[in-house]
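Same chain as my last thread, 186 residues:
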Amino acid sequence: MNLKILIIHEYKILFEILNEIKEILNFKIIKSEKNDYKNIKFDSKVNYLTISKKKNKNIKNDMILESIPISLEKLLETININFLKNKFINQSNISIGKYNLDLNSRKITFKDKCLNLTERETSLIIFINDKINVTVKDLQKNVWDYSLNLETHTVETHIYRLRKKMREFFGDDSFILNTKNGYSID
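reply #2:
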């Protein structure tokens, strides 16, 4: 979730100010008026934050600007802090099939059982879950940042160990599926 979008809801002057400096911002800005918000198509992989003058129960991740005037530096700092909070919260409960994965603590849970994962195992799960069929080359390039010295069996060994861990802890023999087209998570 690297893409961040700031939705400025019913706050025209703030939108105009931020729009003037949009080239230096580390997020995209969108202007939203009364009925626009319900028409925004939210992507689950994007970190959204909304700024408005007053609280609206129908808007999630809403940041209310109460202390006005505020310096631009302080405003941008507050926006970035809120983006970080959203990212932390969103990473704490990712659905992976029948499991929940907490990226912050690198734990995968099912019912009342909780298994600790390594950073590499977490990266493997996230990458495979986001795609339909993942090849060994895809994993070498995207999870291992592709090294010319990396041999194919390195990826396969990690997947074998992760499958074994899932089988022994959760009794799941089919967590990562392997077909002729590549790996996938059901």
